[in-house]
Amino acid sequence: EERVAASELSRVTEDLLSRMTKVVEASQEADEMKKDPIQGPILGFHRMAVTAKLRILGEDKAGWMLIGGSFLLGAVLASFFLLEIFTSWRCRLSS
Question: With a threshold of 0.85, does the pTM exceed it?
Answer without folding.
Answer: no
